[in-house]
Specification:
- The complex is a heterotrimer of chains A (481), B (416) and C (249).
- Chain A is 26% helix and 33% strand.
- The N terminus of chain A is likely disordered.
- Chain A has 12 helices and 22 strands.
- In chain A, strand 1 and strand 2 form a beta hairpin.
- Chain B has 9 helices and 20 strands.
- In chain B, a hairpin with a 2-residue loop joins strand 2 and strand 3.
- Helices cover 19% and strands 41% of the residues of chain B.
- The mean pLDDT of chain B is 89.
- Chain C has 249 residues and is an alpha/beta fold.
- Chain C has 9 helices and 12 strands.
- Chain C has a 6-stranded mixed beta sheet with strand order 6-9-10-3-11-12, sandwiched between helices. Chain C has a 4-stranded antiparallel beta sheet with strand order 2-1-4-5.
- The longest helix of chain C has 15 residues.
- Chain C is globular, with a radius of gyration of 18 Å.
- The mean pLDDT of chain C is 89.
- The chains are: A alpha/beta (481), B alpha/beta (416), C alpha/beta (249).
- Chains in contact: A-B, A-C.
- Chains A and B meet through strand 21 and strand 22 of A and strand 19 and strand 20 of B.
Chain lengths: 481, 416, 249
């Protein structure tokens, strides 16, 4: 019999007993709800310095004065924040020095997600920082990276060991006042990843984090801070999976990228949170703020493949502050059944000769709604700025919707902007051609869709691209009427 | 409930003239509305603060003036002239074909009460557009055009709005009803003579019945210091054709709204616009086309040339409703910024709820191709002339959409 | 191999095939000729299983199976190949990947293991040489950016890869210059064997100089109105269709 989520849960429970854990749940899960007290508990549990507690409390005050935005083309029942547990951690017995010490059951879970650390380590040399319910449980390749001066660790660890870096950059790209969910995250974030690439260093391996929501009724608020110092390069992968849950789970992450002069950051995401069932029951609410800032000659490239979540609200953005800086956004978003996605990017051109490219491919099936929402802003001083945007939507059924809302603001006459968008149905001719060659309908659709998304998939690192391709296939299964 | 705040614009207005229940309803509705701010999505790039602050005067009697050929051109058309928002019998044509109805509002109401009651205010979006509600509440003058079944009007009808005094406020209303198989062309021009700080708030409702064709050409050449809000609300029935061309030559503040509901199969809809602002002028074109029924086509082309510190806004929305299959909708917006200080904000939107559609939009913003200018220079054309030539070529693509040649010439003259 | 009996088919309300009969045996080449609008393309579409075409009467026996009962991919697996008049472009899907998927789907149907990469590549090399298709084109997206001639050569390349029993070439000569025509015909002739059959649908006799038919059928107003040997094609070239259609009328 297949190993199910319930089995896993049971295993984890059994294990606690095995290792003689107390059954005092309160020590790993704090009470439901959001108050100043919640924030203080989180901060103290994590033994945070005073300045960070202040940061959180400030964010909470800002948050309490805000209302949940409703401009996105999504409808859902707003999550009741008083019904959410803001911090939960699978209680580790001791500090983990290497992979071998990781709980074998957790490794098993990872394997089921198709991200076996062992295998990836051998085949691809990826260093993985695995986050399970908010707390990082394993980090590999730390030593090797350490030799180069690359810091890649959990956020809480970074707070303890590199407070000066965290303090200097935290909230500089996404201020806690930025938006409702960012403020919420700033107040209650539990853990996440931290990465620093020193001057002139080309990070020799792809850094990767997998997030997973495991505990029922747990909101996940992770925080990622990535700093690429002058002349450095890093490629960062983020994968997300969530097991099936009946109730909606809230996920409000903040990712901040800082690319200093001449640095380059490639940030790839494959998001496959639980989308809810065929009837739209359950699924993750994914409200994420991702933003990067580029200094002189720097480049930030966002690539995302979004197939999961009941609701997605996500706009990975670039502030092109330095002259000659480059921002890129490549996205494939698939929605099926009752999923709703409102996603896109913001490219803010401030420096001279800044360049941005946006390629967005939306695929809607079932009764879903898929929206592209983007802003390209050319500031007064952004001489010779260039932007090219292309937003295509592919429709699979007559019950879904595809929407495009680009905002183009230009305050500089030397800028050159081009935006194109198309919406069309999956080609009957293409389908028939494939079928005549002996490729069945489902397979034909997957082939055509993958071809349609190719431009974006090609931007992903190899092993990620394969996984993403599979995900597209799985997400569209049964989408043909 | 929000109670509308008093402002100078509101206190300049008085309700009078036309007696219609719809006016009172709109007046009640207006009390619960608010004037838009930058936070109102549809007014994100256009602030109305300035026009609300001004004090205006509402005219109730037509000024006796003589108007130049420039204002009242000798187009092959039946002229209807409104001076400071009031119908001028002296300046208007009184001889038009018997089979059509062309009347000013209070009078039309006496003679065509049932037709007006079944159409007037039927598609105006009083609850969504505060300036439409304002117009419905306060309009005191307007033109009613009814083209009965199968009548094809050879000459067009030219409605001329002219302001001859400063600070004039006018809420003018047009109602165009084109019955089955009829055809009509309406030119609506806005101009002023020695007038400043005026506000014209015009609302036009157009009913295009089965197999009918309506073409509207709007020519906006207000003197630079004037303000203009123009809303056109259209309802198209099956097999009909509607086309609107808008040329904005000047005006301190110009907001054009075109809103088409395509409520029948096999319709063609076309919207074109050209805007060429200078100084600190602001022009905002908002278009919306809602495809409610299958098998229709829509085309849209808006082009702008912005100089000095002018600002342009283009917001085009294409909506394809559930089950409105086989829709082809194309939208293009192209802009040229001639000065460092000019600003363009574009927001083309697609909202598609049907799957068998072909929809696309594109927008570009940039400056002239230096290569092209250089090429012309090497052929002995001065840089200035080269630029002028290129601007003309750029604008011609839109002007060519105007069917009448004399009208095209008139528009080109205004552009020079 | 193929027996078409009294085939009636329509698109929407319009009946296009009005009782068509044709029989094709293994090893034979049949040419179906006819003026525009006679139903040539409808015949190929119906045989391949396009669902816009509704078969209202008649039957089609293919190797003992009722062809019309099968869906398009099953017909393909059973060996029916249609070379499209207008080959379809599929952006982002490479020619190679497309063919590999097609071959493996068929192998799955016959409960065979997927083709080994080595064998597949060998086959690609061998078959592409047949129609002089360059490596560059093989790796490009299916038909995207191909010239008219390249598209047609690609069709024959796919035909060679899929080794069909019954090939239907729908206006394969349209838009081809003489060199491309020769290459395409060479491909078709090389693939010809005593076990397979070909139906060449064409408007002009030009292609038949290179692919010699055993039978020529004239299709007019949804019916075969005359059948003859290859000399019939020459006669048609000379006299046009009028003398036949007048007879018919």
């Amino acid at each position: 019999m297949a190993y199910s989520e319930d089995d896993l849960k049971q295993d984890l429970v059994d294990q606690e007993y095995e290792f003689g854990f107390t059954t005092d749940v309160d020590s790993e899960k704090i009470p439901k709800g959001l108050t100043e007290e919640t924030v203080r508990i989180i901060s103290s549990k994590k033994e945070e310095p005073e300045w960070l507690l202040e940061y959180r409390l400030n964010a909470l005050r800002v948050f309490q004065g805000m209302t949940e935005p409703d401009w996105a083309h999504v409808t859902y029942e707003k999550p009741n924040l008083q019904d959410i547990v803001f911090y939960s951690a699978p209680k580790p017995k001791k500090e983990l020095a290497s992979l071998d010490e990781v709980d074998p059951e957790i490794l098993k879970t990872m394997e089921r997600l198709g991200i076996s650390l062992e295998e990836q380590k051998k085949l691809t040399g990826v260093a993985v920082d695995f986050v399970m319910d908010s707390v990082s449980v394993a980090t590999s390749f730390k030593e090797k990276l350490g030799e180069l001066g690359v810091i890649f660790c959990s956020f809480s660890e970074a707070v303890k060991e590199h407070p000066e870096l965290v303090k200097k950059y935290l909230g500089t790209v996404v201020p806690s006042t930025d938006n409702y969910y960012a403020a919420l995250n700033s107040a209650v974030f539990s853990d996440g990843s931290f990465c620093y690439i020193p001057k002139g260093t080309k990070c020799p391996m792809e850094l990767s984090t997998y997030f997973r929501i495991n505990e029922s009724g747990t909101g996940q608020f992770e925080r990622t801070l990535l700093i690429a110092d002058e002349g450095s390069y890093v490629s960062y992968l983020e994968g997300c999976t969530a097991p099936q849950r009946d109730e909606n789970q809230l996920h409000a992450a903040v990712v901040e990228l800082i690319a200093l002069d001449d640095a380059e950051i490639k940030y790839s995401t494959v998001q496959n949170w639980y989308p809810g069932d065929k009837n739209g029951l359950g699924g993750v609410f994914n409200f994420v703020t991702k933003r990067g800032i580029c200094q002189r000659n720097a480049k930030i490239s966002w690539t995302q493949v979004e197939t999961g979540s009941a609701i997605t609200w996500k706009y990975p953005s670039c502030i092109l502050k330095g002259d000659n800086s480059v921002g890129e956004f490549y996205s494939v978003a698939v929605t099926n059944n009752h999923q709703m996605a409102d996603t896109g990017t913001k490219m803010l051109h401030i420096g001279k000769n800044t360049k941005s490219t946006i390629i967005s491919k939306g695929i809607s099936a079932g009764m879903s709604h898929n929206s592209y929402r983007g802003l390209v802003k050319i500031g007064k001083g952004a001489d010779n700025a260039r932007n090219f945007s292309q937003c295509d939507s592919l429709l699979m059924t007559d019950t879904c919707g595809a929407h495009t809302y680009p905002y183009i603001e230009c305050e500089n006459s030397s800028a050159h902007l081009e935006h194109e968008a198309t919406t069309s149905k999956i080609g009957e001719d293409q389908k028939f051609y494939c079928m005549q060659r002996g490729i069945g309908e489902e397979k034909a659709i997957s082939l055509i869709v993958n071809g349609y998304a190719k431009e974006v998939l090609n931007k992903l690192p190899m092993e990620f691209a394969v996984e993403a391709q599979k995900l597209l296939e799985i997400s569209l299964e049964g989408s043909v009427g | 409930m929000v109670v509308m705040k008093e402002n100078n614009l509101l206190s300049s207005l008085s309700q009078m003239g036309v007696g219609l229940g719809a006016k009172n309803q709109a007046f009640e509705l207006l009390k619960g509305l608010e004037f838009p701010t930058r936070k109102t999505e549809d007014w994100r790039y256009t602030s109305v603060k300035k026009i609300l602050k001004k004090k205006y005067v509402q005219f109730n009697e037509a000024e006796k003036v003589g108007l130049s050929n420039e204002i009242v051109p000798s187009l092959d058309a039946y002229n209807v002239v409104l001076v400071n928002g009031v119908y001028s019998k002296e300046l208007s044509d009184l001889n038009f074909p018997d089979e059509i109805v062309l009347d000013t509002f209070p009078k039309a109401l006496e003679e065509h009460v049932s037709l007006i009651h079944s159409t007037f205010n039927g598609i105006a979006k009083n609850n969504e557009e505060v300036f439409t509600a304002l117009n419905t509440s306060y309009f005191h003058e307007g033109v009613f055009i009814h083209i009965p079944k199968k009548v094809k009007l050879e000459k067009s009808i030219h409605v001329i709005h002219v302001n001859t005094k400063c600070n004039v406020v006018s809420n003018v209303r047009l109602l165009i009803v084109a019955d089955e198989f009829s055809e009509v062309g309406v030119v609506q021009s806005f101009a002023s003579v020695n007038a400043m700080e005026c506000l014209t708030n015009s609302v036009t409702e157009v009913f295009v019945k089965e197999n009918a064709k309506v073409v509207i050409d709007k020519v906006q050449s207000e003197e630079p210091k004037n303000n203009l809000i123009c809303t056109v609300q259209v309802n198209q029935k099956a097999n009909s054709t509607f086309k609107i061309n808008t040329a904005t030559v000047s005006g301190d503040f110009v907001r054009n709204g075109v809103n088409i509901e395509v409520d029948g199969e096999n319709c063609t809809s076309e919207m074109n616009g050209l805007y060429m602002q200078k100084g600190i002028q602001h022009v905002d074109n908002h278009t919306k086309i809602g495809h409610l029924k299958p098998n229709c086509t829509s085309f849209e082309l808006y082009k702008g040339v912005l100089s000095d510190k002018s600002t342009g806004v283009f917001n085009g929305k294409v909506i394809v409703a559930v089950d409105a299959q086989k829709i082809e909708a194309y939208q293009q917006n192209k802009n040229i910024l001639l000065s460092r200080e000019a600003t363009m904000n574009a927001k083309p939107e697609l909202e598609i709820f049907a799957d068998d559609v072909k929809c696309s939009h594109g927008t570009t913003t940039g400056q002239f191709d230096d290569e092209a200018i250089f090429y012309l220079q090497t052929r002995g054309i001065s840089k200035e002339s080269a630029k002028k030539l290129l601007i003309e070529a750029f604008a011609d693509e839109v002007i060519d959409k105007v069917d009448s040649e004399e009208l095209r010439i008139w528009i080109k003259e205004k552009l020079d | 191999m193929l027996k078409v009996k009294n085939l009636h088919a329509s698109v929407g309300d319009k009946e296009i095939l009005k009782g068509l009969n044709i029989e094709v045996k293994a090893g034979e080449v049949h040419a179906v000729m006819g003026p525009n609008g006679s139903g040539k393309s409808t015949l190929s579409a119906v045989l391949a299983g396009r669902d816009e075409y509704e078969v209202t009467a008649g039957e089609v026996d293919y190797l003992g199976k009722e062809l019309l009962e099968l869906n398009p991919e099953e017909r393909s697996w059973e060996g029916v190949f249609l070379a499209f008049q207008y080959p379809v472009e599929i952006p982002g899907v490479s020619n190679i990947n497309f063919l590999k998927t097609a071959i493996n789907e068929r192998r799955k149907y016959f409960e065979q293991d997927p083709i080994a990469a080595k064998d597949f590549l060998k086959m690609v090399k061998e078959k592409s040489a047949l129609v002089e298709l360059s490596d560059k084109l093989k790796n490009r997206s299916v038909n995207v950016g191909f010239s008219g001639g390249e598209k047609k050569r690609n069709e024959i390349f796919q035909m060679a890869m899929l080794e069909p029993k019954l090939s239907i070439l729908d206006e394969t000569d349209s838009g081809l210059d003489i060199d491309a025509l020769r290459i395409v015909a060479h491909g078709v002739n090389t693939l010809k064997s005593k076990d397979n059959a070909t139906i060449v649908i064409t408007h002009y006799q030009r292609l038949l100089d290179y692919i010699i038919p055993d039978f020529v059928h004239v299709l007019y107003d949804g019916r075969i109105i005359k059948t003859g040997g290859k000399e019939l094609a020459l006669e048609l070239e000379e006299k046009g269709y009028d003398w036949l259609t007048k007879e018919e009328a």
